[in-house]
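Q: Hi! Curious about what Galectin looks like structurally. Here's the sequence.
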Amino acid sequence: MTGSTMPPLTKKSPHRSIGDDQNTPPDPNLQISGVPTKKTSQYGSVQPKSFEQNTHPRFGGTVFYRLYTEDGPIRSQHPVYSSDPFIGRTLARLVAPPHTTASLKRHLCHIEGFSSSMVDTAKLFVPLSCLTAKDDSARLSLLASSGPGLSPQEPMAWALAERNLSDFGETRYIYYRPYSPEGAIKSNTCFDESDIYLGRIDTLSVPPPRTIASLTACIARIEGFVVRDTPLIEEIQIFKDVASEDPLRTDVNLSLIEDAYPGNDQDDPVAVVHTPHRLPNPGITLVPGHCDPSWFSIMPTETLRPDKNSGKKFYLLPIHETIRLEAQFKAGGVLIFQSAGFHMDSCVSRNAEGVWINILDSSNNSILHMSIRRGEGTIAFNHLLASNNQWGGEERVPLEGLFKEPNPTIVICDNGDRYQVMVDYVFVAYFEKRIWEDGIAVVYDKDPDQVSPLSNTLAMTAYTSFADVITRVTS
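A: Let's find out. The predicted structure is below.
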């Protein structure tokens, strides 16, 4: 096949965020795998007293590509990111040997649903930035640990000659209305200012196997309904429409490639009812707006008190709960978490998540995940993309020597390009930003069989700037 001298398209497709339609590039530290795994399976063993970082995942064995016609990009049937459906992937071991341009084109035609007659006219550019298409007989190193086309940052480009592929470029949505027991609530994915209670998600954001259960989990993440350790059926139910009397069974299959499926019509959305499952906290008495004055102790010679200004907001954050911030947590902001006690001996000693604090953005991504793991003897930091439940490279610091105060304090500062974390006002770690979005909510949670070493309810104060945080009075 004669090589082309120009690439099929010089501009890349924009990345669209489900929650707010802002341009958000895929995270460069995102680790891609064929099947998402539980986060506890990614941590591995840890040597205490050592700082570990794994921000260079290997992508060997996975081929990444973008689809184009002469008119522009088209959507892949096997997208890597729900926020960018134009980049697809396949496993190298699924391509018939020998691994040549021709064999890869035949495989891509098959998995993307195109006619085999298009193989001869299609062109493959390796990588996307290459100006000349690969010859059909050219050998491809698809099983290498790195190289062109083997990472989402440097995909191949597969250009099809036919232009009549509009069906593949058409966005298909699932429309829904979220409800609490009190009535309709504003959707995080609302797209019409005249109806803020109507949301929608791209059908490609629903993970396989595509059932009502997977749709429920997807909407729960986007709307911030997820509460760990509680079965979804106890919290969230999906009704075919607002007039339905019975919810859809969670094992019902969704045929999202058909013309008709639940929520396919904007005028007939599915109803998503969220009934929060509250876990009792025996022995805890909550007094809104008040906290133990001893929590504000820094040092024996110092007293810490909040400034009387409008740059702060006080919250009570119970375990298993998500609190939405009144003002976004962004550059310059500070979050201070104060515990009524600390009992590390009560924390189950095993290699598990333990207890954690997550800061969420508008797309329900965890822009900062901080977990205390007694079993590993570490505090771990990471991020999580909600669209595909993928974790990034984890960073850890030793737990030994921290949390010495009877009423410990955790401070998280947004320094613009990174987060600064302190325990009892002593520096612990920097965590470089990987998701450049502002925080809108905070989660406090734990593993099901763990007991939090912190109090079951944290006092949290959010400040818009560090200058608003405290006034120190030295005795």
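A: A fun detail: The two ends are 83 Å apart (CA to CA).
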